[in-house]
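Structure in, sequence out. Go:
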């Protein structure tokens, strides 16, 4: 280590210029970074639900819908209908819109003089109450309209724009919003659908990236000043954070990745974690500079490197291990976050060990003003007195502390059984957000905002298969969670009602021979457009889709519904696949759970192994894991008690907490062992460790806590909850390092910490 310290002093200018130059090069790549708000792109390409949903898009064209809801006392009043008609026509002209479904675009199949007539659901705007009542009666008998684009109380109607594949949300949504301004009215307007949600998510990601990092950096500056009250003590760790953020964020476009929702966590994570190593080094610098020994600036720089390089490198490695365990998630953004965070930590670690000593060696020796004032008053700092208090409690009642910790863990563990897993994108927003309000209106009045699709393959015009489609649609529609269903069989039955209105035998029935069904479609084409069916059946009539609209966004409910549908069609060779966005959400939830469990055990295992190697003791890994296990139990227990869902953001918690939280234990054990080797008894070694290294541990932990507090102002609820839970979990890790670990050292007296005889 001495040789390396000499190397740093010799090449200090080269090290300083090198870090600045590399940082600037990567920072120049930042404008090239792109945002990806598509939830489907978070899944692996070989995930069944993603493959099936893409296949459905290929067979039936784009299935994504932008929905405009018009809400008023009665949507059938003339002024409202005129506005809906104008909007429908204009939205249909927007580039990227495949087709529009509204009261003026969806069809009403009726009979006139024994012939099938296909008209728009609303042919003409009613002029009086009699015509309005007649129109209301017609709409109630129209299965394709009633309860899907018009609510059953006629207070809401929808204009649904089905988008073409690969259409641009950032182009279509603003154009539709402008049309709503161009055609004003007294009605309330709500916009919803996946394209709108994606755009809102993308905008919020940009918003968070613009405000979270500056606010986090400002808080960190204030915190560093409160800790060290010395300009170099503030700026050096701060520069390390800035350099690591610019480096890793510039790396994203260079390797072809994009910014997702959870990428918002990356700068904040680095603000919270990347300065930890610098904080310990500045704390050591202030400890040495205020001692009786008159060290030169170069000697001070060498001392902080030789004294802290091993524990700092180890804490960096354990934090990296925790971050890299995020690769255990199959969620693509989680894997990427783990890699990027680990790279950022490597850069911060290198900058702390090389850049900070290099700069310190150039600065004149200076004792912090607050240390001078405390020397004159002979009054110890508040933090030191608090740490002495902890040392006294631990020394007097170590067994009691261990028992209390176990009891608290047992109480917290009960909450684990109440954890809910949910990946509903509406959960990203508060209840009063327009996205949630629109989704609730759709769920309550228009069938549902999520969909599940079942695709069947065969000769669709064959009566046996058509009846199977009809029966399956009816069975799916009977589930309480399903608000509405559509299929080609429903359309055939509507044709049957129109053509057999005086025949009780075949009224509302599917014909019993293929030619009759084919004739129905021919008759329809005479007054209607065959493309009206393109979202229900392909043109060779070889594939048909049943679409179920689900009236809840709850992932657990949708998962159970999909399971029941799978049970219904199990073994049926004519059922080709089950897909839709509802299926994507359920697979997303599975990945969240599997990734959480895998990364949790992997992070704990790797950290324990690293500690065993460091201290050359199996017991070291076990003892270090104890506060982590307790903190994890408290973390998940609180999630259950407070109703905080396990989602794509909170699933990152365990790996991050383990990687960061174990640092405090490492620093304590490292210094405690030194004090034991210096001849101090366990109680005295605990007190000495707490009042020296304990100061850096507290600064370290509170820098993480304060760094993550900024997430509480995020635009996304999961990110806010993540910030809250990180604060709680890191605080519990801190208490474990300051109280529980010292108590275990006194009671157990691990051999790897005892002085060699």
């Amino acid at each position: 280590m001495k040789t390396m310290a000499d190397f740093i002093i010799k090449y200090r200018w080269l090290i300083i210029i090198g870090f600045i130059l590399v940082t600037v090069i990567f920072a120049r790549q930042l404008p090239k970074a792109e945002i990806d708000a598509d939830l489907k792109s978070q899944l692996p390409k070989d995930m069944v639900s993603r493959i099936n949903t893409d296949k459905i898009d290929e067979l039936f064209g784009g299935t994504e819908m932008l929905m405009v809801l018009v809400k008023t006392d009665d949507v059938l009043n003339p002024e409202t209908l005129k506005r809906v008609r104008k909007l429908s026509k204009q939205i249909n002209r927007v580039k990227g819109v495949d087709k529009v479904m509204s009261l003026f675009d969806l069809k009403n199949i009726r009979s006139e003089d024994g012939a099938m007539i296909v008209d728009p659901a609303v042919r003409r705007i009613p002029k009086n109450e009699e015509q309005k009542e007649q129109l209301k009666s017609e709409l109630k008998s129209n299965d394709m309209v009633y309860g899907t684009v018009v609510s059953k109380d006629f207070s809401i109607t929808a204009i649904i724009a089905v988008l073409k594949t690969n259409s641009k949300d950032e182009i279509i949504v603003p154009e539709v919003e402008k049309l709503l301004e161009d055609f004003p009215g007294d009605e309330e307007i709500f916009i919803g659908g996946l394209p709108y949600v994606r755009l809102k998510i993308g905008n919020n990601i940009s918003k968070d990236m613009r405000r979270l990092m500056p606010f986090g950096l400002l808080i960190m500056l204030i915190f560093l000043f409160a800790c060290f009250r010395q300009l170099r003590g503030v700026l050096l760790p701060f520069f390390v954070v800035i350099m690591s953020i610019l480096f890793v964020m510039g790396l994203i476009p260079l390797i072809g990745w994009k910014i997702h929702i959870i990428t918002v966590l990356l700068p904040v994570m680095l603000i919270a974690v990347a300065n930890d190593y610098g904080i310990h080094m500045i704390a050591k610098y202030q400890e040495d500079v205020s001692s009786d020994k008159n060290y030169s600036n170069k000697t001070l720089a060498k001392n902080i490197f030789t004294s802290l390089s091993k524990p700092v490198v180890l804490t960096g490695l354990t934090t990296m291990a925790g971050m890299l365990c995020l690769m255990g998630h199959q969620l693509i953004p989680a894997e990427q976050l783990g890699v990027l965070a680990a790279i950022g930590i490597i850069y911060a670690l290198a900058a702390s060990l090389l850049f900070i000593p290099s700069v310190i060696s150039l600065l004149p020796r200076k004792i912090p003003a607050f240390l001078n004032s405390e020397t004159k008053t002979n009054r110890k700092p508040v933090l030191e007195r608090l740490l002495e208090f902890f040392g006294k409690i631990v020394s007097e009642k170590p067994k009691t502390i261990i028992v209390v910790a176990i009891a608290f863990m047992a109480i917290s563990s009960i909450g684990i059984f109440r954890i809910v897993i949910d990946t509903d994108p509406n959960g990203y927003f508060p209840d009063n957000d327009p996205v949630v309000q629109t989704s609730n209106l759709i769920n309550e009045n228009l069938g549902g905002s999520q969909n599940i699709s079942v695709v069947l393959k065969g000769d669709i015009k064959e009566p046996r298969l058509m009846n199977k489609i009809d029966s399956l649609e009816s069975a799916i529609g009977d589930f309480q969670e399903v608000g509405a269903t559509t299929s080609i069989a429903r359309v055939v039955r509507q044709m049957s009602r129109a053509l057999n209105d005086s025949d009780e035998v075949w009224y509302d029935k599917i014909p019993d021979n293929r030619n009759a069904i084919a004739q129905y479609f021919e008759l329809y084409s005479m007054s209607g457009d065959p493309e009206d069916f393109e979202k229900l059946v392909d043109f060779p009539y070889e594939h048909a889709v049943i679409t179920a609209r689900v009236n809840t966004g709850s992932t657990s409910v949708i998962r159970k519904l999909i399971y029941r549908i799978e049970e219904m069609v199990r073994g049926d060779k004519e059922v080709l696949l089950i897909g839709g966005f509802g299926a994507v959400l359920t697979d997303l939830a599975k990945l969240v759970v599997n990734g959480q469990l895998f990364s949790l055990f992997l992070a704990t295992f790797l950290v324990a192994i690293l500690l065993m190697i460091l201290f050359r003791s199996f017991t070291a890994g076990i003892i270090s894991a104890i506060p982590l296990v307790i903190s994890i139990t408290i973390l998940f227990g609180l999630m259950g008690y407070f109703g905080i869902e396990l989602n794509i953001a909170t699933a990152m918690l365990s790996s991050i907490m383990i990687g960061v939280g174990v640092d405090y234990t490492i620093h304590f054990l490292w210094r405690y062992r030194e004090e034991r080797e210096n001849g101090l008894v366990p109680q005295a070694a605990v007190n000495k460790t707490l009042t020296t290294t304990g100061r850096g541990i507290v600064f370290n932990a509170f820098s993480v806590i304060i760094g993550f507090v900024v997430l509480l102002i995020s635009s996304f609820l999961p990110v806010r909850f993540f910030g809250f839970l990180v604060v709680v979990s890191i605080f519990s890790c801190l208490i474990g390092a300051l109280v529980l670990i010292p108590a275990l050292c006194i009671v157990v007296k691990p051999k790897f910490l005892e002085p060699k005889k």
